[in-house]
Amino acid sequence: xxxxxxxxxxxxxxxxxxxxxxxxxxxxxxxxxxxxxxxxxxxxxxxxxxxxxxxxxxxxxxxxxxxxxxxxxxxxxxxxxxxxxxxxxxxxxxxxxxxxxxxxxxxxxxxxxxxxxxxxxxxxxxxxxxxxxxxxxxxxxxxxxxxxxxxxxxxxxxxxxxxxxxxxxxxxxxxxxxxxxxxxxxxxxxx
Length: 191
Description:
Blueprint: H1 2-16, E1 38-41, E2 48-52, E3 60-66, E4 72-82, E5 87-90, E6 101-102, E7 114-120, E8 123-129, E9 137-138, E10 142-150, E11 164-173, E12 179-180, E13 183-184, E14 187-190
Parallel strand pairs: 2-13
Antiparallel strand pairs: 1-14, 2-3, 3-10, 4-8, 4-9, 4-11, 5-10, 6-10, 7-8, 11-12
């Protein structure tokens, strides 16, 4: 009987101590880290690509549209989308009149210019073009810039993916009318 009492007591002590394994503190699962900005990885390939501009910050991603090498053109237009619940489409600089900024490829000339960025919720329709049959320019340069702003109010955790897509695009080659183009996008995540 005494032996049973001692074994029951030992069992109570082991249970109270957590089964005798390793002692000390119990670890709580770590809480996810809240996002504080954006991180973008450029696309690996593609003729027309949206790549990160060096002037980007951790909270404002500026994307440059660059075209294919050894190609000439007079303008581009495309539709770009970002989920407005996760990030905001904004002007490249606050002083810009449009939601798109001309790059260094096209010479837009005097006003009125063919430079337009129309924002509708999470969709941005952009056009940058030279006037008339002006001299075609190399497309392997910065054709235009657009910007995406981190949205702290979205409450995302670090590492969350933010889908970005270009749903349609066209460019004006050296001669002739618009030609369809595919724009490659990279990977946008919170950090």
